[in-house]
Amino acid sequence: MTSNIERLHLTHPLHFVIGLTLWCIWFVAVYGGHAVACAVAPPAPEQGVFTLVNAMLLMVSLAATVLLAVLTLGCCREAKRHEGRLRFNAAVSAGLYLFSTLGVVFTALPILGIPPCL
User: Fold this and answer.
1) Hey, what long-range contacts does 42-51 have (CB within 8 A, 24 or more apart)?
2) Helix (DSSP H) and strand (DSSP E) numbers for the chain
3) What is the pTM of this model?
4) d(C-alpha 36, C-alpha 61), whole Å
5) CB 30 within 8 A of CB 60
6) Which residue in 24, 25, 89, 106 has a CA-CA distance of 20 to 30 Å to 63?
7) First-to-final CA distance of the chain
């Protein structure tokens, strides 16, 4: 059985923007969710960083990091398999996915050390 919907290959130019778009969605979700959680049910400051708010933010951040890292590795593998334009597309996509992955990691680091809702 074949499907009419073709898989979006990792050499497609659309991957130039997918990584940064995923990072943007993660950023809005994490910081928006943080603001809403602090407005609705702020945890006690005595709890420190071990709160449900930080746990949920960390889980979302970990999921985004894993997804972006898998896409980075996939594009790297595709770049090695192809030549010419397809290799270029995959290599640039891998670089942008890596940049987005590092952006998530770097931006999420305060979750590990700063209590929420200060």
Assistant:
1) 42/116, 42/117, 43/115, 43/116, 43/117, 45/115, 45/117, 45/118, 47/115, 48/115, 49/111, 49/112, 49/113, 49/114, 49/115, 49/116, 51/115, 51/116
2) 3, 0
3) 0.86
4) 17
5) yes
6) 89
7) 55
Return the structure tokens found at 92: 């640039």
Identity of residue 57: L
Contact 71, 19 (CB under 8 A): yes
Which region holds residue 84: left if phi is over 0, alpha if psi is between -120 and 50, else beta?
left
Kindly give the confidence (pLDDT) of every residue in the chain, 118 residues in length, as a single tens digit, with 9 standing for 90 and above: 444 444 678 888 888 999 999 999 999 999 999 999 999 988 888 888 889 999 999 999 999 999 999 999 999 999 999 889 889 999 999 999 999 999 999 999 999 998 888 8
